[in-house]
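Risk register update: the risk of archive-format incompatibility is retired. Evidence:
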Amino acid sequence: MTEFLSALVSQPFLQMSLLAGLLASLGCGVIGTFVVVKRITFLAGGIAHSVLAGMGAAVYFGFDPLLGALIAAIVSALLIGWIRLNWKTQEDTLIGAIWAMGMAVGLLFIAQTPGYTSSLTSYLFGNILLVPEQDVWFMGILDLVLLLIVGLFYRQFLAVIFDEEFARLRGVPVSFFYLLLLCLIAVTVVLLIHVVGLILVIALLTLPAAIAGHYVHSLGWMMLIATVLGSSFTIGGLAISYSPDLPAGPTIILLAGSAYVISAIFSHYRLKRRARQSLSMPS
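Archived output:
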């Protein structure tokens, strides 16, 4: 830990990595809470894995993979949202097909790219230590967009997440805000790609919010705690992986996963103890 802290003071690339992790944690704390409460992890997974098509196309045609990822993520979010709203009986199968086809298209583009480097591998598995400055600026802009939209339409999102039918009765355009929520998930996926990679993105999107949900039931508090937890896992994963030269992305996820397991066990026994205490109380 001491070695990591001294390197953090003197190494600009490590400072940039830490900033990227904190920016990604902000997005994952806010949007991950929506994903966990709405129980749409599978939909988020479909969006995340279809992003590879955009990244592969970007590499093949020679433009920024993150821009390709953002375009593919938003297109797949709208497509998955339309399927969910109109094809509910075949929803899982169709989303699974989009998930698989997105990855297949991406792999085909990558295979046809002459002499592609390991840079794409860093997007797949994450390499937070190699985040360039322009990508950090890009992540900051995406965070501002996320916070602005959530702040403007917080009540509408709240209504759509907890009770779609009631929201319709109140005149809320449910389909529009549902699709907008999926687009925000798409943006968050792109934010997290550099930190843990495309393969592990869903874990960091959902685990901090799931842990927060064990202890608080207010959506605002869940977002705040999930953001703090995501930041802690990112900083902790960076610190743990630095000295032994381990991959930072998997280390961050192992830390988050371990914290979730411990939290789930503690929460389970806490609820059981409360139940026993309520039964033993005299009427």
